[in-house]
Each structure stands twice: as structure tokens, then as C-alpha cells.
Specification:
By secondary structure, this protein is α+β, with helices and mostly antiparallel strands. It is built from 15 helices and 38 strands. The strands form seven sheets. Strands 6, 7, 8, 9, 11, 12, 14, 15, 19 and 20 form a ten-stranded antiparallel beta sheet that branches. An eight-stranded parallel barrel has the order 21-22-23-26-27-28-29-30, surrounded by five helices. Strands 5, 10, 13, 16, 17 and 18 form a six-stranded antiparallel beta sheet that branches. It binds alpha-D-galactopyranose. Alpha-D-galactopyranose binds next to loops.
Length: 720
């Protein structure tokens, strides 16, 4: 376990997952990545063959080419014609040749300076490899951390300029892996606004497939992650490897199958609009990447990632804390609310057992619609019918916690802040703005702006008894160009991220008792960078239960359930216009952190009774959902008419099944449950019926639903 060096081989060993790197006269070769193979010794690579049109660094050894060796850094100009992972402009060229000069084994994990990292732990070991380019006097530090209790290895790197000339980094990926030829499939999580994290699965073939964002946020359309698996891998079988980037800004990830069928994977900052000036005696660190492995299929890969994210990335204050059932006033009132209306809503919520009242957009400045006032974080006391403190007290008095919506990174042109500091937004001088939701983005690359935001939100939080913050971000970044010269502008997007991380780490550390939920028009920045600071995320603005099924399914591949807010909203649904039974809306939202986002005051008595029952039932089920192991039983792919999810937690098993369209004269689906003890008895809560674990696993349970569209069933078993 951990890191070991034997002769010229480095063994990087996590729980059941290992990488073996070979030092071949200074070149770093990736000898193995996959299952940990005991303490056996490996020999040197023997692949030596002269391939036509490949470059040879040594004229006497035509059989050695970087184009045919598996590596962990890719450099162009030295005979490797695949996509490079590092490109540095050094004077009049950009050819660098990094050779290994030193190594060090460090106990514990490391933090990446200024960027989100998993919490530092001593249950890990880190390999530091130092490579040098003698001509440019650049030093590259590669870090691989192997975690004792996980099938996870993290990696990042740092480029240091020890010479006397400035150089310019044009690309510095966080991790790169070359893998042998095989039949692979690739999974990515794509989509759009209100349709986030759609699972896309495709066969890998010769050429390059890449995903990326240049929006200044990871975006709704892509997730900074790739899963590579053996062709035909299922939930319970096959080898799979996930690469994830812990970064919330512009990213790229690619897979390249070259002319020989070999595969290169890379992930890191997107360099479409990125360069970095590296002055002498300074260094640049890449964001951190996570590499996760499973040799037993996709469920194991997901569970591995879910647990790692929850226990090593999420704040320890919240990782194991049950999340409150909330009511959010957005879809209940939008901007049109009065204090009385809010208190009526809070009253009903309290009576139904809801625990947290969230006041969404519209409480500040002159914010009566989404055209104005972002930046003016001054309470609109006229609209709130008194001070914010007053309202909070009244909500607290009803036995509810109080939460508030903010959108700190934004500024409206129609705001006092803009009138005072027109130069604080992101813009190209002498060009007109580009608007989105009629708002602009503050330049968090500017330290003055970050300092202002720290003070503003510090003051808000210090002076109010706020229990929860919803941190929104409702547009992407355009018009990057505040710098006074080209390269400064090229650095702005990453500097924005450094400013943002500084701001959110400051606020979350200062107010550890405040639960922060991140949002970017739903899941427009649902990534591990944000999750390090905000342990909950509003996964989508689409609150339609049926449309949520694939979104929740996609999220489950890599993110823990406890990170995901899921709300019951009105029917017909505001985004989709679909009418769905309240039962099903409840069952779907109960597969995440349950909340409500509808006008409770307009519901019938029977609907209120049902919600009250849902909330009280969820409080029983909550630890199973939020802390349990998650299993995908039926996936909502393009042809599927149904979805089933199982959670196991201690002696509890919870199965939720949703059928989308009503069908006639077909056999109802039989669900075979997972990971139960064959010889144990499980009692169905409610009916009292008892089953053996073996029966539930092998014979399964045949669902029996009433006719109708969008019908669901929830089954809770307790082991006897
Ligand atoms: C975004 C969020 C919504 C809501 C509105 C308020 O769209 O995703 O949940 O907070 O902003 O303007």
C-alpha cells in the first residue's frame, strides 16, 4: 500500500488500484494502470519496434519512439505525434524535453495552492517526481497520491521556472494517461440547461473525442469527467476508470485513439483562451484530477467516487449530517411576494414538518425582476415589510431554519454598484457588453472586487442568523479582456477561478454552521471544485419529476446522493407542462435531498395531508438515502420506460421504481435487488411481508402498479 520504488519502477498503490511508472533513462513510462497486483515485481518494458514515421530521440535506437511508448506527460516536437499535455513557449520555440532527475515519497496527501483539493489526510502517500528540461531551465513536479482506503489516486503538477527568462504556458493538463489497445467505451455526462448530466456512451475509435467548456464555468452541457470502460461493461462487470477534474472553470478532457489503436486520456484547464506568464522563480500549479478505478463494473466505480467525494472532498461538517427538508419560494412566488405571503408559506411549511425556509431571489435592492439590482446587496425593507433580521426571527419562531439566495459574482448594469464601479465587470474596453439574463459578471480576477465581496457577504452573514445560503450564478462569461495586454487577458479566466475559490473558501470557513448550496441556473457548475466548498447542489432548474430521472441518474455516476437537492414542485410543472401525481413527485425527490418548491398555501387539504405524510416518511428514510450505498437497478436510457434505484443502509433497503408511460398486457417488471445477505430475512415495512435475501436477489420482486402515466412505487425493507 502507498508508494514504493524498486530499481527504476515506481509503484503507486491505492486500496485495490495501482499505477506503475517506469523510469526509462529519464523518460517516464506508464507500465500499468488498473488492478493492484500484490507485491509482485515487474520487469522493464520490452516494447521495442521500429514504427514507420515515428520520431527517435536517439539515432542509434530506431526502436524507441515516444510516439509508441505509454506515458504520463505528452510533449510535442520529440517524436510523439499525439495530443500533448504540456506546451510552453520558451523564447522562439515551444519544444521542451523533461527528464526525471529526482523523486521523493511524501507521507500524506497535499493541497494544491489556491485551488480546491481533497482534505489533507495522513491515510495516503504521495509520490513527487521532479523532471527537468536542461535547455529552458524549467522544472516539472508531478504528484500522485495513493489513498489507503480508496481505489482512488489523485494527481496534479506544478511547473517551476528556475531560469532567468520568462516563459509562457499554453497548456498544462492535470493528468494524462496512455493505455494499451483494447475495445473501449467512453461515458460522458452531457446535456443542456434544464437537461443536465445526460449519460452518453460511445465506442472509442481512431481519432479524438473531446469535451470542454469555455464558458467560465464547467457548464450545463458538459461535466469535467470521463469514464473509460471495457466494451460491454455493465453495472456489475467490467473494468472502468474515471478521470475527474476538481475545477469549476474552463476545462477540457479528451480521448485519443491513435494510428496504432493505443489510447491517450487527458484532462485539465481548457487552453482555448488560456496562457500563463511564468516569471523566473515562480511556478504554476494545475488543478487536481481524480483517477478512480473499478474492476467490477460501473456501480462499484460510482460507489467508490461517491464515497470519496463525500468523505474526502465535502466539508466534514456536512458529509454525515442529515440535510433539512426545505421549502423554497421561487416557483411559489417568483419575484412577486410580500412579507405576509412569505410568512403564510412558512406557516404551512412548519405545519407540514418542513425544516428550512429559503427566501430566493428578489429580497434586495430594487429587484422586482431579473433585469436589475444584482450587486446591490442591501435588504429591500419596503418589500420585506421590515428588516431581514425581523423576517428571520419570525421564521425561526415558527420552528424553521432560515435560508437566503444570493448571486455574488454578478452585477446588473442597472445597479448602484455598477454606477459606482463600472470597471468592476468583465469587459473589453471600448466594446459594448454582451448580456445574458440582462446581467454582467464581476471580475473576480481583480483583488479589489474579491475583497469587496468578502466584506459584503461577511457583513450579511455576521449580522443575520442565517442557516443556509443558495449561491447562484446565472450566466456565463463573455468579453474577457480587462487586462492591459494580451497575455494578462489570457490569464483572466483562471485568475477569476482563483478569486472565486478564495472568496468561497473564506466565507465557508468563516461560517461553518451555514449550509451552502451551489446553483448555476440549476446544474451549470455542478462539479467537484464547487462541491469542496458547497456540500449541496441544486442539480437542475427542471423540477419536473420525470425529467429529473435522467438528471439524477447521470449525477449518480460520480456524485454522492447527499450532494443533490431535489424538490417537489407544482403540477402541471412550470418547465415541462407535465401533470404528474404528487406521490410520484415525492418518490422522485426522495431519491435526493427532499425539498418543496411550490405554493403550499394554494394546495387542497388532501394535498397538504399527503405532503405532511411524505415529509414525515422521508425523515425516517433520510439516512438511507443520504448515507446509503446507491445502486442503479434500471437506467432511464433512451428506450427505457422505467427507472429503479436501490439504497442500502445498515439494516434498511429502499427501492424506488417509476414507470413512465402506462402499458397494457405486458408483464410488470421484476426487480432483482442487490447486495443483500442471502440468508437474512427482510420485512417490507407497511405490509409486514417477509422475504429471504436470496428471494429478493434471485427471484426478485414483480412490481404491481395501477394504470396511468408516471406511476411509482417505493418499497422499504428492514432486515430482521
Ligand atoms: C436561477 C436558479 C433558480 C432561481 C432563480 C432566481 O434560475 O436556478 O432556482 O433561484 O435563478 O432568479
Amino acid at each position: 500500500m502507498g508508494i514504493r520504488k524498486e530499481e527504476n519502477l515506481y509503484y503507486i498503490e491505492a486500496k485495490q488500484f495501482s499505477m506503475i511508472l517506469e523510469n526509462r533513462e529519464g523518460y517516464l513510462l506508464l507500465k500499468h494502470i488498473g488492478k493492484k497486483i500484490g507485491s509482485y515485481h515487474f520487469s522493464n518494458s520490452i516494447y521495442e519496434r521500429d514504427h514507420a514515421f515515428s520520431g527517435n530521440p536517439d539515432p542509434n535506437i530506431r526502436t524507441f519512439s515516444l510516439d509508441t511508448q505509454r506515458q504520463v506527460i505528452g510533449l510535442h516536437g520529440l517524436g510523439d505525434f499525439r495530443k500533448p499535455s504540456l506546451v510552453v513557449e520558451c523564447g522562439n520555440h515551444s519544444v521542451t524535453e523533461f527528464k526525471l532527475v529526482a523523486d521523493r515519497i511524501i507521507s500524506g496527501s497535499l493541497e494544491v495552492e489556491g485551488l480546491p483539493s481533497p482534505y489533507v489526510t495522513d491515510k495516503a502517500e504521495t509520490l513527487e517526481l521532479v523532471l527537468e528540461d536542461v535547455v529552458t531551465k524549467l522544472r516539472l513536479y508531478l504528484y500522485y497520491t495513493a489513498y489507503e482506503d480508496y481505489d482512488t489516486i489523485t494527481s496534479f503538477n506544478r511547473l517551476e521556472n528556475v531560469g532567468s527568462d520568462q516563459v509562457v504556458i499554453h497548456r498544462q493538463l492535470s493528468t494524462m494517461l496512455d493505455l494499451p489497445k483494447s475495445n473501449y467505451e467512453l461515458l460522458t455526462f452531457q446535456g443542456a440547461y434544464a437537461r443536465e448530466k445526460t449519460v452518453r456512451r460511445q465506442k472509442v475509435s481512431q481519432g479524438i473525442f473531446s469535451i470542454a467548456s469555455n464558458r467560465g464555468a464547467s457548464g450545463h452541457a458538459q461535466t469535467p469527467a470521463l469514464i473509460l470502460c471495457q466494451e460491454g461493461s455493465q453495472e456489475d462487470s467490467g473494468e472502468a476508470l474515471a478521470l475527474q477534474l476538481m475545477y469549476s472553470g474552463n476545462f477540457q478532457a479528451f480521448i485519443q485513439e491513435n494510428q496504432l489503436g493505443e489510447v491517450r486520456l487527458g484532462i485539465g484547464i481548457n487552453d482555448d483562451n488560456f496562457s500563463w506568464e511564468l516569471q523566473p522563480q515562480s511556478s504554476f500549479s494545475s488543478p487536481l484530477a481524480l483517477i478512480t478505478y473499478s474492476n467490477q463494473g460501473l456501480t462499484q466505480l460510482s460507489q467508490e467516487s461517491q464515497v470519496f467525494v463525500r468523505d474526502e472532498i465535502m466539508s466534514p461538517v456536512y458529509a454525515h449530517q442529515e440535510r433539512p427538508v426545505l421549502i423554497n419560494n421561487w416557483e411559489a412566488t417568483y419575484f412577486d411576494f410580500t412579507k405576509d405571503k412569505l410568512l403564510e408559506l412558512a406557516d404551512d411549511a412548519a405545519q407540514l414538518g418542513i425544516e428550512l425556509f429559503v427566501l430566493d431571489d428578489g429580497w434586495f435592492g430594487n429587484r422586482f425582476d431579473d433585469n436589475r439590482s444584482l450587486g446591490d446587496w442591501v435588504v429591500n425593507e419596503e418589500k420585506l415589510g421590515g428588516t431581514l433580521a425581523n423576517l428571520i426571527d419570525e421564521v425561526h419562531a415558527k420552528g424553521l431554519k432560515f435560508g437566503l439566495w444570493v448571486e455574488p459574482e454578478m452585477i446588473s448594469e442597472n445597479s448602484d454598484l455598477y454606477r459606482q464601479h463600472p470597471d468592476w465587470c468583465i469587459q473589453v474596453p471600448n466594446r459594448s457588453h454582451t448580456y445574458s439574463r440582462n446581467q454582467l459578471v464581476l471580475n473576480l480576477a481583480n483583488k479589489e472586487v474579491v475583497a469587496y465581496l468578502k466584506t459584503t457577504f461577511d457583513t450579511l452573514l455576521a449580522n443575520h442568523d442565517i442557516d443556509y445560503i443558495k449561491w447562484d450564478m446565472n450566466r456565463n462569461i463573455t468579453n474577457i479582456g480587462n487586462g492591459s495586454y494580451y497575455l494578462e487577458t489570457q490569464m483572466q479566466s483562471h485568475r477569476y477561478m482563483l478569486g472565486l475559490y478564495e472568496l468561497v473558501s473564506y466565507l465557508t470557513e468563516s461560517y461553518p454552521h451555514v449550509l451552502f448550496e451551489s446553483c448555476a441556473g440549476g446544474g451549470g457548475r455542478n462539479d467537484l471544485g464547487m462541491m469542496r466548498y458547497f456540500p449541496q447542489v441544486w442539480a437542475s432548474d427542471n423540477t419536473d419529476a420525470i425529467a429529473r430521472l435522467p438528471i439524477q441518474y447521470g449525477s449518480s455516476y460520480l456524485y454522492p446522493t447527499i450532494s443533490m437537492g431535489a424538490h417537489v414542485s407544482a403540477s402541471p410543472n412550470h418547465q415541462m407542462g407535465r401533470t404528474t401525481p404528487l406521490d410520484t413527485r415525492g418518490h422522485v425527490a426522495m431519491m435526493g435531498n427532499l425539498g418543496y418548491e411550490l405554493d403550499l398555501t394554494s394546495l387542497s387539504q388532501s394535498e397538504k395531508e399527503l405532503i405532511k405524510a411524505q415529509v414525515s416518511h422521508y425523515k425516517q428514510l433520510r439516512p438511507i438515502v443520504q448515507f446509503g450505498q446507491h445502486y442503479r437497478l434500471i437506467n432511464p436510457d433512451e428506450v427505457s420506460n422505467e427507472v429503479a434505484v436501490q439504497f442500502n443502509y445498515q439494516d434498511n433497503v429502499l427501492v424506488t421504481y417509476v414507470r413512465i408511460q402506462s402499458q397494457i398486457e405486458t408483464m410488470e417488471t421484476t426487480l432483482k435487488l442487490k447486495d443483500l445477505e442471502e440468508g437474512r430475512l427482510y420485512q417490507l415495512v407497511g405490509s409486514g411481508q417477509v422475504y429471504s435475501g436470496a428471494e429478493l436477489i434471485y427471484a426478485g420482486l414483480t412490481m404491481s402498479l395501477v394504470q396511468g402515466d408516471y406511476i411509482s412505487q417505493q418499497l422499504h425493507f428492514q432486515a430482521l
